[in-house]
Structures are given as structure tokens and as C-alpha cells.
Amino acid sequence: MLLSLLMLATLAAAPELRPAMVDWSGVSDATVRRCNLGLLQSLLLQGMVESGFAVVDAVGPRVIQVTLIERKGGIAVEARRDDVVARRRVPVPQRCDSTIGVELQAAARATATEVEEQTRFIAPVPASTAPTAPLWADSPRAPVETVQAEAPRASTTREWSGPRGRIGLGAGLSSAESPFAVLTGQLGVRYGGWWVAACVDAALRDSLGVIVLEPALGPEVSRLTRVGFADMSIGLAVQLLGHAFWRDDDRGGHLDVRVSAPLRVEHATSGFGIALVPTFRLRPVEHRVGDDLAYRVRHVGGLVAITFRIPP
Fold first, then answer.
1. What per-residue confidence (pLDDT) applies to 274?
2. Is the pTM of this model over 0.70?
């Protein structure tokens, strides 16, 4: 009740809304019990209100998103608005107590304040309208000079973060008869709202005694967007694609080029997600055993995979 009254009083007194959303779901229940963090929610909300923020429960325009994610040996506190990010790390020893909650409160306040200051809109300061002549004709004072103040500019930062990896397991849909197993992996960095990575895929299919392996390697550039508690990305990848096959009476392979437009949706805290990747390859392939079709891929295909983002 006291916290609610404090939030209302802050909103009434604040000349400008500073909306912020706090997500502490990334802190495990085991850590909450071990460190006696039962009041973590109240501490975080109270700290944000005392810093002049209006705490909201949904993402919207100009809302600062403060996220707590448990990492090995500590808890990462991240505040984000648009492409501006501020981070702090609070170490959590094996033997801990409720003072960790106070440190997390301070980290949340500090990161949110830093992001708010860097993204705050500052209106231009109008030129002074002071007179250029003495106010009294008979006054011996010197004329008053007009000084035009220059409005300070809001600063923004775009920072590199990473490297971080992503792995996935799924199915390829380029075959007209049945899907084939696909293992995917990425290693990349994030710059502001962009994801730049090296991608490697490996597809395997065994049908009618024909074993087909298709590895692929190449760069990807994607645009990232936060929607609620999910990270979405859509991008473009160009990969060198290999095709190798083995059968009782023959073996061989060739190189190809594949272009894809990966679409990914991931949970922001857990890192689990799904990837939908439409693809286009330059060269279709077909293998037959007698009159039976063992393998066929066309120009247009796709991949579907369940993915996991490896923590940095």
C-alpha cells in the first residue's frame, strides 16, 4: 500500500513521464530462496519510483526496459531504450543474503537513469529576448548584450556486445518427398539494433541407400526488434553450400550458393526460440535408385529449427 501511494505521488509530482518496465523473471527461484530475495519485486519497484520513473507493465513507445538475467556467478542488469543499452553486473556468491537485493535495486536505478539521460529529448532553447538598449535613457549603465544559448544535444550510444552464439536443431524442407535433419549454429556480435554473425549449417539425409550431406557456411546480417518479452530478427544470409553424396556404386559432390532470409523469434530471458528460414539455391539436385526417387531439392526451400541462444 505504501509503495502504491509512493508511485502515485511520484507520478503527480513529475513534470515529465519517465516510463520504465522491470522484468526480474530471469532470476531463478533457487537464487531467490538462497539469497532471501522474497522482497526483490518491492525493492526494484520502489527504487525505480524513487528515481522518478513511472513503472508500467507493458512495452510501449519511449518505455525503458530493465531486465535482470541470472548468469554464472552473478546477475546481469540491463536497461534498454531503442538502440541505447546500459549494463551492470552484480556478483552473487554461493553464500549470500538479502543485501544482494539492495545491490540489484541500485544497479536497476543506475542503468535506467543512464539510458534515460542518453535518450532524453531536449527541446531547443529560444534566443534571449533581453533588450539591446538601456532600460532607462538616463542610466549610465552599458547596453545589455543579447546572448543566444545553444541547446545541448541528447547523446546516444551504439555499443558492440558479444560475441555470443546460437545453436539449433530442425528440419530442412527443400526435399519434395520428406524433410531432412538440420543442425545450425551461429557466432556473432550485436551492434545497437543489428546482429552480425557467421552461420554454419549441416543437413543430413539417408534414403534408399543414398547418403547426402550438405554443409553451408557464410555471413548473416539481421535487424533486431524487442516485442514484449521476445526478441525478433529478420535478415539476409549468403552461404557457400556444399553437396556431397555416397551410394553403393558412386560418390561425389559439388559447391553451390544459397541465399536465405532468416526470421527468428526468441524469448528475451531464456534464449529459446524458433527460426523460419526461406532459402534459394542456384542448383537443384536429384538422386535416383533405379526408377525410385531417393533425394530431390529444388531452387526454393526452407529450414525450420528450434534454437537456443548461448549466454555470453
1. 94
2. no
